[in-house]
Automatic annotation (TrEMBL):
Species whose genome carries this gene: Dactylosporangium salmoneum
Domain of life assignment: Bacteria
Lineage: Bacteria, Bacillati, Actinomycetota, Actinomycetes, Micromonosporales
Solute-binding protein family domain boundaries: 44-433
Signal peptide: none
Listed name of the protein: ABC transporter substrate-binding protein
PANTHER family from the UniProt entry: ABC TRANSPORTER SUBSTRATE-BINDING PROTEIN (PTHR30290:SF83), PERIPLASMIC BINDING COMPONENT OF ABC TRANSPORTER (PTHR30290)
Length: 526
């Protein structure tokens, strides 16, 4: 597997990006997981470590799961309820930042709980909303009804960890495996996975585990990687690009050549590419609105490779989700080159009101050639309205940790989002609930990059989560999407598509909607 940068986090409780989540499934099983099949079934969950997708009671406030027989760790010891409970508990520790918010958001009685490493783990009681009925039965007590909690525990955040194997911060370098593979070697550029002899296919209906060995190698030179995969010489016959589309200069060759097109792995999913606008650094609404109006989406997408990169976006919830509401507050669908005249007018209004817009801004991006090229189109967009944009290239391996610190000094931030499951509850709360913005000085786990903390939005999020009728909840998420658009803290650019190149010997590739990538669990060699 080629990736543009080595995954920053392997610890399941610290996994933040789609690539990390995809890779995590090689070694970390969860109570439930998504099917590894192309098409609509990929959005469905099944029992993974658990016998089924969960049994709710008390109006979806209590959820019970039972562990399968013969699920084991890489040393042969059985996986128990205590391991699941401990995995969730360690996500509350202050030792490291946790990106996924769901444990802290959904579980009851979490106020004041600081994880297992302090205070004797709550005086030996641990987190009382995760209960071990016995060694194989786990009960979660929630602070509100959550109808899709079975999807929530599919997140790596809820993966078990055996306390005796927990190396705390160092667990990020080599997590203990209960999946079909275990980590053999970690270098600056590679992760090497080999078989875990204690994984039993009879307990796992999802992971195919075809290859004997999987090597994940970082290489940010996209044109060279694409070229090597097209020619497919040597090891590249057995290689696939996991997280980057075909380089723009090769797109037409791949699309128009039947053999290359058949070999590529392509599809659309519910992901979105967007730019976040830091509302603390740009507090004036008209200034943020001007940045949205001035953005040239056509030039950006053309530089990315055209329509194969994605469809133009006007919302944060993608059309593939039932919670999608179709709106276009900034009239960008009819003005793909932007409306710089409207932007200048808004900037004049701000100036006349004594709140002039800053003439120079900083855009944070992962420092990779293909992203730099796309960022250049954004620089040109803002030159039209008299704003100088400085590009701040950040090491791709640590990029999301850097911008995940709310104290970062970037005005605009390159980002993308793939819903953790197919509902607005996996888009709006993690990206826009201001109550989740960390206050710790060195935090790296913020995902509300625009730093929106609006009481009205926060209350509406709580109301939507509490709505038990799915169709009503979908409507509430769509309305919230529009309300957030009025705050002008994000610029939706495209609903993403994938076009990944594979070597001639690769089989089983399809784009999984949870990752927007080829599903690692399904791939093999001819």
């Amino acid at each position: 597997m080629v990736v543009s940068a080595k995954p920053a986090h392997l610890d399941p409780q610290r996994v933040a990006t789609a690539t990390e989540a995809n890779v995590s499934r090689l070694v970390s099983r969860t109570l439930t997981t998504f099917r590894s099949e192309p098409g609509p079934p990929a959005s469905e969950i099944v029992g993974d470590l658990a016998t089924d997708a969960g049994r709710p009671s008390e109006g979806n406030r209590v959820w019970d799961f039972q562990l399968k027989d013969d699920v084991r760790w890489e040393d042969g010891t059985p996986i128990t309820c205590a391991d699941v409970k401990y995995g969730v508990e360690r996500s509350f520790s202050g030792l490291f930042s946790v990106a996924q918010p769901y444990a802290k958001t959904y579980l009851a009685d979490t106020d004041g709980y600081a994880g297992p490493f302090v205070g004797g783990n709550n005086g030996g009681k641990g987190l009382q909303s995760v209960q071990c009925v016995d060694t194989k039965n786990i009960r979660f007590v929630l602070n509100q009804p959550i109808g899709d909690f079975g999807y929530t525990v599919a997140m790596s955040l809820f993966a078990p960890v055996p306390a005796k194997q927990d190396t705390k911060n160092d667990y990020d370098k080599k997590p203990f495996s209960n999946g079909p593979y275990k980590l053999q070697e970690v270098t600056d550029q590679q992760l090497v996975y080999v078989r875990n002899s204690y994984w039993d296919a009879k307990t796992d209906t999802v992971r195919k585990a075809y290859p004997e060995k999987i090597v994940i190698e970082a290489n940010g030179d996209l044109p060279t990687v694409t070229s090597n995969l097209i020619t497919s010489d040597g090891d590249f016959a057995d290689t696939i690009d996991l997280d980057k589309n075909v380089a723009p200069n090769f797109v037409q060759q791949v699309v128009n050549d039947p053999d290359l097109s058949a070999r590529s792995v392509q599809g659309s999913y519910g992901g979105i590419r967007y730019i976040a606008i830091n509302s603390r650094r740009i507090p004036t609404l008209q200034c943020r609105q001007a940045l949205i109006y001035a953005f040239d989406k056509r030039k950006f997408r053309a530089a990315a490779g055209g329509s194969i990169y994605g469809d133009y976006a006007t919302t944060m919830i993608a059309p593939q989700l039932k919670a999608h509401k179709n709106f276009d507050l900034y009239d960008s669908a009819n003005n793909l080159e932007g409306k710089p005249d409207v932007a200048i007018k808004l900037m004049d209004e701000a100036k006349n009101a004594g709140k002039p817009c800053p003439p120079t801004l900083t855009l944070a991006i992962p420092d990779q050639k293909d992203i730099r090229r796309l960022a250049t189109t954004i620089v040109e967009s803002y030159q039209q309205i008299g704003i100088q944009l400085k590009i701040n290239g950040i090491d791709p391996e640590t990029y999301f940790d850097v911008i995940g610190n709310p104290a970062n000094t970037n005005d605009l931030l390159w980002s993308g989002w793939i819903p953790d499951w197919a509902n607005g509850s996996a888009v709006i709360p993690p990206l826009f609930d201001g109550r989740l913005i960390p206050t710790k000085a060195n935090a790296t786990n913020n995902q509300d990059y625009g730093l929106l903390d609006d009481p009205e939005v926060n209350d509406a999020i709580s109301a939507a989560l509490a709505e038990s009728v799915p169709d009503r909840q979908y409507r509430l998420w769509g309305e919230l999407d529009q309300k957030i658009a009025e705050k002008a803290v994000v610029i939706p650019i495209v609903y993403m598509k994938s076009l990944r190149m594979a070597g001639t010997n690769i089989r089983g590739g399809f784009i999984h909607p949870q990752f927007g990538q080829p599903d690692l669990c399904a791939l093999g060699l001819a």
